[in-house]
Amino acid sequence: MKCKFSKSAALIFGALAFAAAGCGGGDHHHHHHDDPEDDDTVLVDLQVIDGYLDDAMVFIDMNRNFEWDRNEPRAYADDYGLVHLSVWKEDLRSRGDTPLQAIAVSRKGARDYIYDGRDDTGSDIVMSRNIFVNRDMNDGVWYIISPYSTLTDIELSGTSAFNDFQEYRDRLTSIAGEAGASEKTVYDSVDYNVRFRDENDLKTVVAGEVLARKDKLPKSLEELRDLMEAVSWGSDDYDLSECRELTQTIVAQAESDMKDNNKYSGNDLIATIKDVLGKSEAEADAKDDEKSDGEKTGDEKADQNADEKADEADDAARPVLVIDNRGND
After folding, report:
1. Per-residue pLDDT tens for 246-288?
2. CA distance 149 to 130
3. 204 vs 215: CA distance, rounded Å
4. DSSP codes, 70-138
């Protein structure tokens, strides 16, 4: 069932969760279950943000086999990226302190809402997020599934930090900063795709878009599984310097355009993102062509040198005609 939330509801949820975080609650906030039928479940609110990915399939991978099984909670995100799931308390008890894993699958061409603008995704995108649930079983949780949480899942998979809330969160904010996002805005209970003219939120939204459009995210459940199971994955694989530079360029251009245009919109930002990334790709292609031409020239020179040496060898091997005139008058 696709649960629809209003924009105001999204803001209220974010505000409540932010308040909880300020009171030492981390990413946890309270959901009071007045319906007796809900006493056996815990509410899990999730929001998928690259931009808001509408109709992304979101499920909790209870057995961590990287595919949706019929007994696992599943829902489809609305146009604010929101889903509402319930997890059986009995299932949580059986897991001890092991966090849950939420996975979002968005198909190529899906609607991607960036502020008040809309674009379509250029490829399949799979994102994930570790979910730490209060073990008193009375509280629900709110989390954001993002490019940053996905990269954190991949990097920390198989380490002790993967199951530690504070270490996981610290690495998530660090990765966000490396990508050019604002570390202040990736606390998972805050919707950073709301305050359009806030510099920190703008950085975080743009950096997430750059990560997705530069193919830094898995495109399938199988790819996510392979990346999380790869024992050789390390810090060298996380060179996000190019993404950070592109983010800085896009944000600077957007902020400049906003000053000159009070009506600057999400659609304008999308155009700026595409323009900067397009120029970057064109420059990269030009460098590749130049490098290719240089290598070709080098090959041609090598061939010429080889030909010259072959000619010299032929000359040296050619018999010399000697004329003896001693018997002539």
Report:
1. 999 999 999 999 999 889 999 999 999 999 999 988 887 777 6
2. 8
3. 17
4. TTS-EEE--TT-EEEEEEEHHHHHHHTTPPEEEEEEE-TT-EEEETTEEEE-SS-EEEEEEE---TTS-
